[in-house]
Amino acid sequence: MPDQLPPFKTAPRSAMPKSIWALGFVSLLMDISSEMIHSLLPLFMVTVMGLSATTIGLIEGVAESTALIVKVFSGALSDYLGKRKALAVIGYGLGAASKPLFVLANSASMVLTARFIDRIGKGIRGAPRDALVADLAPPEMRGTAFGLRQALDTVGAFAGPLLAVVLMLLWHDDFRAVFAVATIPAVLAVLLLVVGVQEPATVAKHKGVNPISREQLKRLPRAYWYIVVIGGVFTLARFSEAFLVLKAQQVGVALALVPLVMVGMNVVYAAAAYPFGWLSDRMSHHKLLALGLVTLLLADVALAVAQGWPMLFLGVGLWGVHLAMTQGLLATMVADVAPPALRGTAYGVFNLVSGGAMLVASVFAGVMWDVWGAAFTFIFGAIFCGLTLVMLVLLRPWRSMASWPRV
Q1: How many alpha carbons fall within 13 Å on the CB side of residue 103?
Q2: 3-state DSSP call for residue 4?
Q3: pLDDT-derived band at 318, boundaries 50, 70, 90
Q4: What is the DSSP string of 271-335?
Q5: What's the CA gap between 243 and 330, in Å, rounded?
């Protein structure tokens, strides 16, 4: 049985809606702001605040999993209200409001508070935004739409660290001054979202129905739950990208140049996200996801053995390729099988499972780093990638998913 339904190969291609472009640039601006901070934050916590890798892993794990867990509630709420844009505005607004707290942080608890507020904002906006992209995009262009948004998002993800490097060099490693500048693009992102995105009316007709009732959850097909399981196990094979930054410091990269690691990864991610999104509209999702796992495995091996710039950037580049292959793909797969009125809830539940996996993976990675060292941390990731690949191959019901109609 073919992996792609013929109608989605041969249907006329529609123009990309302007609101999807606007959402992409909103993501770009917010990522410039966030990555200016996040590319420096692990070093700030180690060199200025004297925190351990275990503490960093705990902070990052709690922060990232909080964002993913909150998505289940915001996604369900967006289905219930029949409105997604308002929740996205609240989420981006909290992200912007958290930025000044990093400037003032002088303890682990203050950093955790700032990260917590920032990630709550990300959690609130994440599922409604993804559901909004799925609502706006023509079905035959969903992969391309998610790839476009992801590509623009990732341009911000490498522009932010690059700007951080420049400012660190100009201002002699003044972390707090760089954190202050990061507030500006965050505010601009909120303003663009308010004026530049028009919400479709397709979801409003379903408002008032409790999307997390047993009756409504039964409408989510088996294909969706297979995606949830695979996505959760896949997340266990990954951990916070803060450990890429710490690896760069370990191999001797100068403090002011460490953010170039995130720049390099995100340049690759941004360049590859749209092509892989386009490809996902034309090839087997199962095969593309498997290739993404193989790429992550190779990245982990390269980072485990890295002793200098060449192998470090090979691993970081492969990490960016795997993100480009899989992140938009998983979002597209959820959109393809979830009923339109339950898309927000579907993204929320998917990310709830991934959130728990991200917490476990990041905390465990931090403990392994402190106890056994960096190499063992990345070897663990490679081993789990292999286990996930075996699961992907052996999970027979997964293979029949392509025959399920897109909605």
Answers
A1: 13
A2: coil
A3: very high
A4: HHHHHHHHHHTTS-HHHHHHHHHHHHHHHHHHHHH--SHHHHHHHHHHHHHHHHHHHHHHHHHHH
A5: 23
pTM of the shown model: 0.71
Q: What is the pLDDT of residue 211?
A: 67
> Is the residue at 2 inside a domain?
no
> CA dist 33 to 6, 29, 183, 184, 189, Å?
42, 6, 6, 7, 9
Tokens 């917490």 -> residue? 359
CATH of the domain at 293: 1.20.1250.20
Q: Where in the sequence is the domain holding 88, given as residue range(s)?
A: 16-202+215-403
318 in Cβ contact with 407 (< 8 Å)? no
**Section 100-111 average pLDDT:** 83
Alpha helical stretches, state H, 339-373: 343-371
Contacts of residue 352, Cβ cutoff 8 Å, sequence gap at least 6: 68, 69, 71, 72
Distance separating alpha carbons of residues 268 and 208, to the nearest angstrom: 43
For residues 68-72, average pLDDT: 71
Amino acid at 176: R
| Better-scored residue on pLDDT, 325 or 246 | 325
Q: Is residue 8 part of a domain?
A: no
The answer to whether residues 355 and 68 touch, using CB atoms and an 8 Å cutoff, is: yes
- Tally the domains of the chain: 1
367: pLDDT strictly greater than 60? yes
Q: Which of 315, 320, 322, 316 is nearest to 301 (CA)?
A: 315
Residue 403 pLDDT: 43
Average pLDDT, the chain: 81
Segment 310-335 shows an average pLDDT of 89
**Does residue 332 belong to any structural domain of this protein?**
yes
Instruction: Report the C-alpha gap between 30 and 184 in whole angstroms.
Output: 9
